[in-house]
Write a structure and sequence with these properties.
There is one protein chain. The protein is mostly helical and 523 residues long. The chain has 23 helices and 2 strands. The chain has a two-stranded antiparallel sheet with strand order 1-2. Helix 3 runs antiparallel to helix 7 and helix 7 packs antiparallel against helix 9. The longest helix is centred in the middle third of the chain and has 32 residues.
Length: 523
């Protein structure tokens, strides 16, 4: 007589693709929010692609299309900082290859990324909220400047999109602590740098925000030493006051210097006269500037040392530190022109002596960058617990009537050996992070490994060129051109909302600061 066994059959065995079907069904299900995003997406495509090739090419667009066409035609491309990053030219050449060389295909790349800028708040609903993310997408959709540059073959829209991706990865990593977000962050930072040198400004913004976030968290957590906490708080306060004073002095120096229009040139100075406006005007500001810089350096150093002493064991618990190390270590080699310029040399000097000096300055900075990334990224191997057998040979000692020996086990902790550290070195998470960054960098700046000089123009030349351009002040627009004309005329709605949000945020921050100060005094 046979007995039939009952088998439990799961839904995955009957329908192996049930999970995929459920996800697709969730995409098909429409609610008010989904319909709103779908409408924004369709309008974004319509406004970015409608009659895209009709408008005549501007001066900048003509240069970008010409160099892209040269690359598409097989004449190659050599990166020059004058044309910003090389990514735009490679993608435009690819568009020519896929869709033909015409004005419409030349603008496909910024138009596609412009749609991405409109839709990326959809991925930020966790922090912006459902209403906030939808409002952000709508503001991106109707923004005159975003729309204009989405139909314009320049580097602006790619830079904006990659910066938004960096912000998204930063938020996700701070909450989830998954290394994949650091890898995507590194790739986005590489594409941002390969798009435009404004990446330095974006990274400075990210760094300042993360630093403020890190400082506020340090003010909230408990310190083992109350003295170190007071020193740290005082140093932070002095840093804020020094930065405020430095801004006032800088504005005063610029206000006191004569301004010229775009069509004017300054007369040569007479011998013996101070071109900065006289010794009586410039010397007090210069002295104040040096004193403030000294106070700033002292306060920052004091705050850093107090954190290293008081929170050294807890630094790895702050995910924002990981993000700052990744961004800082990857951008550090590109800051070498600052040091070259400070040492009295021109970063754009292409003579053998100039190239040799730039290499002597840049290569150690690259080594420091890699070393810092590796030290941060390594996971120290933990102690291993090993079971060691031990045998009792005497049966009477074992408390048994058996004549056979009794085998016991003992657990012993073993310190990591050389092989453990070698394995930790090769499994360092910085290899993937730094590898994806430098692979993208080398691929585009060397024009697909055909222009070795692109390594120099990318690492040293990019910032070096724009440091030289600071004295030229191309365009000659006055300061109020942006403050009183461009932003209020075109982007008045985000300006009004930003001012309101700033007032609310400052009020909340000041109230929290007073609450923390009162708690410290009560300790």
């Amino acid at each position: 007589m046979s007995v039939q066994q009952d088998h439990v059959v799961t839904a995955e065995q009957v329908r192996p693709l049930s999970n995929l079907e459920n996800r697709l069904a969730g995409l098909i299900y429409l609610n008010g929010e989904t319909i709103a995003y779908l409408a924004i997406f369709l309008v974004a495509i319509l406004t970015r692609f409608w009659d895209l090739g009709a408008r005549v090419m501007s001066h900048d667009e003509s240069l970008h299309t010409r160099y892209s066409w040269n690359l598409y035609h097989g004449d190659g491309f050599a990166h020059t900082p004058l044309m910003h990053g090389p990514l735009l030219f490679h993608i435009t050449a690819l568009m020519y290859l896929l869709f033909g060389d015409n004005d419409f295909s030349a603008r496909i790349y910024p138009a596609v990324l412009g749609v991405g800028v409109v839709m990326i708040p959809l991925l930020m609903r966790r922090w912006l909220g459902r209403t906030g993310a939808l409002a952000a997408s709508f503001l991106f959709l109707i923004s005159p400047l975003i729309l204009y540059y989405s139909r314009y073959i320049r580097h602006d829209i790619p830079a904006i999109l990659f910066a938004l991706i960096m912000a998204l990865c930063t938020w996700r990593y701070i909450e989830d602590r998954e290394n994949k977000y650091l890898v995507i962050l590194a790739a986005a930072q590489a594409c941002l740098y390969a798009s435009k040198e404004v990446s330095f400004i974006y990274i400075a913004i990210f760094g300042s925000f993360l630093t403020l976030f890190f400082v506020t968290r340090l003010l909230e957590i408990s310190w083992n030493s109350r003295t170190l906490y007071i020193i740290f708080t005082s140093a932070v306060l002095l840093t804020v006051l020094s930065l405020s004073a430095l801004g006032i002095v800088t504005i005063s120096q610029k206000t006191g210097s004569p301004t010229l229009s775009a069509g004017e040139t300054q007369a040569p100075p007479e011998p013996g006269l101070d071109t900065a406006g006289g010794a009586g005007t410039s010397q007090p500001l210069e002295i104040a500037n040096r004193i403030i810089l000294g106070l700033l350096a002292m306060s920052v150093t004091t705050a850093t040392v107090s954190v290293l002493i008081g929170q050294w064991r807890n630094l790895r618990l702050f995910p924002e530190m990981d993000v700052m190390v990744v961004m800082g270590s990857l951008i550090l080699p590109m800051l070498s022109p600052f040091l070259v310029h400070a040492l009295g040399h021109n970063p754009l000097d292409e003579t053998p002596e100039g190239i040799q000096f730039s290499l002597l300055v840049t290569l150690p900075i690259v080594a420091v960058s890699v070393l810092a990334g590796l030290i941060w990224g390594i996971r120290p191997p933990a102690r291993r617990t090993v079971t060691i057998p031990s045998t009792l040979e005497n049966s009477s000692q074992a408390g048994s009537d058996l004549d056979q020996p009794l085998t016991l086990s003992e657990e012993v902790e073993i310190r990591p050996d050389l092989l453990d550290w070698v394995q930790a070195f090769f499994t360092n998470r910085w290899w993937a992070i730094g590898g994806i960054f430098w692979l993208i960098f080398i691929f585009f700046f060397t024009t697909m490994f055909t222009n070795g000089a692109g390594l120099g123009t990318g690492v040293v030349g990019s910032l070096g060129y724009w440091l030289e351009q600071q004295g030229v002040k191309r365009g000659g627009q006055p300061t109020y051109y942006y403050v009183l004309l461009m932003v209020p005329m075109y982007e008045f709605l985000p300006l009004i909302l930003s001012l309101v949000a700033s007032v609310i945020g400052i009020k909340a921050g000041v109230s929290k600061l007073f609450q923390r100060s009162s708690r410290v005094l009560e300790m």
